[in-house]
Amino acid sequence: MGGEPQRMFEMRRILAAMLLAVIAGAGLSDGAHAAKYKVLYSFCAQAGCVDGADPWASPVGDGKGNYYGTTAGSNGQTEGTIYRMSFAHNKWTYTLLYTFCLQKKCPDGSQPHGALIRDIKGNLYGTTQYGGDANKGEVYELSPGILHWRYTRLYSFCSAKGCADGENPIEVTLTYQGAASGAPYDGKSALFGATTGNRTRTHGTVFSLTPAKTGWTMKVLYSFCALANCADGADPYSGPMVDGAGNLFGAAGGGAFGEGALYELMRQGKGYQEVVLYSFCPATGCDDGTSPLATPVMDGAGNLYGTATAGGAGAAGRGQGTVYRLVPNGTKSTFTKLYDFCNKTNCTDGDEPWAGLAIDPHGNLLGTTFLGGDANAGTIFELSGKALTTFKRLVSLGSTQMPGGFPLSAPVPQSAKTYIGTTADGGDGNQGVIYELTP
User: Fold this and answer.
1) What's the pLDDT at 88?
2) How much is the pLDDT for 138?
3) 13, 393, 394, 408: which sits with the fewest CB atoms below 10 Å from its CB?
4) Position 267 pLDDT exceeds 60
């Protein structure tokens, strides 16, 4: 997919800005905002945006009041950063930990779109879409030191012949067995992720990266488009999640109808077998949705929840995304659509959910849409009720009261009642914000 997501993001952001005045002038609203929304930091607060710009992913907490995150920063001034937000003495403090592309040709990577993970020693791990030896992205570690954080490149993609090991991980957050429980990475077991392809050499991979005595060992677990017309999936935008048994679940393009697929890599001995759990758009109209970009989340019962960026039955068939539930059972998995976006006039409920979902302590789903809302700058929403079909718009982004816009990630739990998240645009510097949300 290369730079396609960045181009799509910029194009949609420009179009949304053009529509902003028209929509805002119409005075549209679907009710009072019930949630409390507070901006903790606006990016590009420093000259040259050295503090970062365009945070695609939400930060990860360490349980001590610190949150660590990335900015993609592809704005001609930075190529991405890693930052820390710390809460102490009743205020939040921003600290820049690392700036990417410090050397010519970015051997340390550039444009980190995914979220970070932490291990038990406080080390951080992530991926970049570009940079590295072949400019095809890499996996890195950032370790705390006495005076400075130390950057270590763990793997540079496209190291294998024909880039058989994968290239350009886009919004990929590394994961590991036990990540779903909230436990930190043990620093010893395998990390998992996915890559896209350039559609001529490869169509993406799912990989593992395991620490060894002399570095880290890369292993391709599955190469997509092994079946005709990529019926098994292709070019995953995000990485997989891991269940308690070590099986991997994710979303990809391709599928039986070419509109996206949900897949499982079933653990079998020392290897994995891929099975497509669901292919989107089995019938004319694509009412179930198309283009699932985000990693699904799993509840305690083993059900998967996620979003499709387009398709659906909203706005008289316009189709601007859906929320789904999948009960995984191999080829007999059960798919249920929970919500169609653009259900309200001018899509004030939301439009194009690029991000995944979060599950709150009550089992409700929280998520974001990239567009829609009163200012067409995105929304934060909740699905609740026994069937998880009761929709509530928590925040409409892009106003003076709700600064920030175009979120590309879901908020993550900060406490039992509050969440923390990012938007890729808006704020004082118009380059994104970190926000706190109390639903």
Assistant:
1) 86
2) 97
3) 13
4) yes
Q: What is the pLDDT of residues 200-223, one digit of tens each?
A: 788 999 999 999 988 999 999 999
Question: What is the Cα–Cα distance from 309 to 324, expressed in whole angstroms?
Answer: 11
What's the rounded Cα separation, in Å, for the pair 289 and 110? Answer: 32
| Model pLDDT for residues 84-131, shown as the tens digit of each residue | 999 988 899 999 999 999 888 899 999 999 999 999 999 999 999 999
pTM of the entire predicted model: 0.93
Pairing of strands 138-143, 241-242: unpaired
* Dist. CA 21–CA 257, nearest whole Å: 38
The owner of tokens 């009041």 is: 65
Q: Which of 124, 362, 80, 125 is nearest to 239 (CA)?
A: 125
Whole-number average pLDDT of the chain: 91
Burial readout 4-37 (b: 16 or more C-beta within 10 A, e: otherwise): ebbeebeebbeebbeebeebeeeebebeebebeb
